[in-house]
Design a protein that fits this description.
about 100 residues, alpha+beta, 3-stranded mixed β-sheet, 3 strands, about 50% helix
């Protein structure tokens, strides 16, 4: 099994996300034409801008569900990998009390 990365909070992207100009929607358009914008988001994600900066993303529930399921799958892979490593190399494991003590220092 390939070595998996440690989980991190937030998102760190090495490459910027690429999207077309047709996917940029400003907040004023959202408030005036939400029904139309919502339909467009069913086709591909829309990046909502506020003062020229991407602030939020609007996507279909299907796309959200697919992303959520993929994240759950990857998290399970990480847990499985860690369990395999702990079983294969128990000497590399650290007991919880040691971790807890070191985090209080």
């Amino acid at each position: 099994m390939a070595k998996l990365l440690e989980p991190q909070k937030g998102v760190s992207l090495e490459q910027p996300i690429l999207f077309g100009r047709d996917q940029l929607v400003n907040t004023a358009t959202i408030s005036r034409q939400f029904s139309k914008v919502k339909l467009l988001a069913k086709v591909k994600p829309l990046f909502i801008t506020d003062n020229g900066n991407v602030d939020s993303v609007l996507l279909s529930y299907e796309a959200y569900e697919e992303m959520y399921n993929r994240i759950q799958s990857l998290e399970q892979e990480v847990l499985d990998y860690r369990a395999e490593e702990a079983t294969a190399k128990p000497e590399s494991s650290v007991d919880w009390q040691t971790v807890r003590r070191s985090s209080k220092e």
